[in-house]
Amino acid sequence: IKPLIDEDTLIVASTDFTHYGYGYSYVPFKKDIEANIRKLDYGAFERILALDFAGFSRYKSATGITACGFMPVALLLKLLPDDVQGKILRYDTSGNQMGDFNSSVSYASIIFTRGKKSSEVIDENPGLNDNEQLTLLKIARETLETYIKERKLPDVNNGKYTFTQKLKEKRGVFVTLNKNGSLRGCIGHILPREPLFKAVMKNIINSSTNDTRFTPVSEDELSDLEIDISVLSPIKKITGPEKFIPGKHGIIIRMLGSGAVFLPQVATEQGWNREETLCHLCKKAGLPAYAWKDDDMEFFIFTAEVIYENKI
C-alpha cells in the first residue's frame, strides 16, 4: 500500500474499541465500570496518537482490549509518516448512550494531519492570556469550595465567567493541590477529553477527594490549599531517555503493563537530574528504580503551561 500513497491520499481505518460485558466474554473489572472502560480505551489512544505500533500491540496483549479493528489500526500506524499530529475528535460509549454499562462498546473518531516537525519535537502550548489563566483559577477555586462544603458543582454558566475559544478547547490537564508547601493531591488526564474549563472542574474534585494517596480534603483545610493547573501539550514518543529534558518536559514511562507520569515541574521542584527523575518515576510505576534502562521501556514526553494560584 505504502508506494501508492502520496500527498493527496486520505487513509481511513475503521474500528470500535472496548467491547465490555459477558456477551463479549470480556469482563476484566466489575466496579467503576464506566471509569475503567474509559481508562482502558485512553490507554490505547495514547499509543495510537504516539504512532506507537509496538506499544499498541503490547497493550492489546497485556489488557486483552477487545478492539475488533486492531489490525486496520496497526496497519495505519505503519503507514503514517512521522510528521503527523493526531487529535481525538469525539469519544463515547454505548453504555453512556443507553445508561447501562452491563454491556458497552466504545467508539472514537481520531484524525491525523500532516505537519512539518519531526516526531521528537513537540509543539509548545499556545499560551493562555492573563484573563484566561485567572478565569481557570477562579473556576477551580469556586468548584473546590462549593464541592467540599456542599457536595455540588457551582453554576459557571450564569454569566460570571467569559469562556474564550481556548477555554472551550479539549486539552489534557492536571490539577495539583499543595498545603503548606507539600503535595495534598494531584489528578488529571494526559489526553484531551473535554473542554479545558470542564476538565479543570472535574480534576480539582478528583484531586481533593479521589487521590488515594491522601484522605479527602476537609472544609477546615480550604484556606490552606494552593491550586496549580498544568495545561498539557500533545504527547510524543521519544527513542530514548536522553531525549527527555528535566524541567522542560513532562515524562511518561510504560513497560509490561505498568506506567507512571511526572509533570514537567516535578524534577525542578525536587532538584532531580534526569537519572534521579527516571528512577523515582520507575518506583512510582511499581518497577525497579533502574527499569528505565530496560530495552522494553517506552518513553513519552510533553510540555505544560503551569498556572500557579499563588503567583497571580
Structural summary, described in words:
By secondary structure, this protein is α+β, with helices and mostly antiparallel strands. It has 3 domains: 2-114, LigB-like (Protocatechuate 4,5-dioxygenase, Chain B, 3-Layer(aba) Sandwich), CATH 3.40.830; 130-233, Glycoprotein, Type 4 Pilin (2-Layer Sandwich); 236-304, 2-Layer Sandwich (Dna Ligase, domain 1). The chain has 9 helices and 11 strands. A hairpin with a 2-residue loop joins strand 4 (173-179) and strand 5. Helix 1 (33-49) runs antiparallel to helix 2 (53-63) and helix 5 (130-150) packs across helix 7 (196-209).
Share in β-strands: 15-25%
Give the CATH class of the largest domain: Alpha Beta
Q: Strand order of the main beta sheet, please? A: 5-4-6-11
Low-confidence stretches: 116-121
Write down the CATH topology of the largest domain: Protocatechuate 4,5-dioxygenase, Chain B
Shape: globular
Rg calculated over all Cα atoms: 20 Å
How would you spell out the order of helices and strands?
Answer: EHHHEHEHHEEHEEEEHHEE
CATH level 4 superfamily of the largest domain? LigB-like
Total number of distinct structural domains? 3
H/I helix tally: 9
Distance between the termini: 54 Å
